[in-house]
Amino acid sequence: GATSAALTDRVPLTGGQSPAPVAVVGRPVPPMSERPSANRHLVSPRYFQTLGIPVKAGRDFDERDSARVPHVVIVNETFAKQHFPGEDPVGRTLITGMGQLPSQVIGVVADVRSTGLNTPPEADYFLPALQRPETFTNIMVRTSMPPAAMASLVREALRGVDADLPLLEPQALTTRIEQTV
Questions:
Q1: Phi, psi of 156 (to 5 degrees)
Q2: Gyration radius (Cα) of the chain, Å
Q3: Which residues of 156-171 are buried (b: 16+ CB within 10 A; e: fewer)?
Q4: Helix, strand or coil for residue 55?
Q5: C-alpha span between 104 and 73 (Å, rounded)
Q6: 22, 37 Cβ separation under 8 angstroms
Q7: In this predicted model, what pLDDT tens digit does every residue of 21-75 receive, in sequence order?
Q8: SS3 (DSSP) at 150
């Protein structure tokens, strides 16, 4: 609703972001150094739902998007406008990052301000963490509990998965947002 639209216009994404080169399969693929870049995010299923970011076309990531199936990607509206003007990006294939892995676009999500509240939305693409596990990650939890109480519950849950997993810098998203202005 209106609340989701307002949130997606204001809320910056946190962590897990880095600029990476992209190319569209079916078009001339320039050398790596000449490719446009977009902000790369590694996210898990329900990330967009957790942050109230609407899926505008296609679908969200889910448990089907594992390492055993072809790679997929979701782009934001700004990415879609820049790379697919007047076209539907869903079903198209991107070559992303230094690994140049082909990934099929399965969805388009609303824009958010990924670098800060004082900059306009940028081209972002999202990869499923279930397909591309990495060493470091961020955990986002939507709750009505006080953040301090939630941090201890998340630490306990992490210990249940792996006793050696640390929880570094737990922080409320509202605090992260305040730090960007």
A1: -60, -45
A2: 17
A3: eeeeeeeeeeeeeeee
A4: strand
A5: 6
A6: yes
A7: 999 999 999 998 899 999 998 888 988 998 889 999 999 999 899 889 999 999 9
A8: helix
CA 17 to chain centre: 8
Indicate the SS3 state at residue 76.
Answer: strand
* Three-state secondary-structure class, residue 129: coil
Chain segment 133-169, per-residue pLDDT in tens = 665 566 667 778 877 777 778 778 777 877 776 666 6
Angstrom distance (rounded) from CA 77 to CA 143: 27
Q: What is the pTM of this model?
A: 0.72
* Torsion angles phi and psi, residue 121, rounded to 5: -55, 145
CA distance 23 to 96: 7
DSSP letter at 115 equals S
Q: Please tell me what DSSP assigns to residue 91.
A: T
Partnered with residue 24 across adjacent β-strands are 94
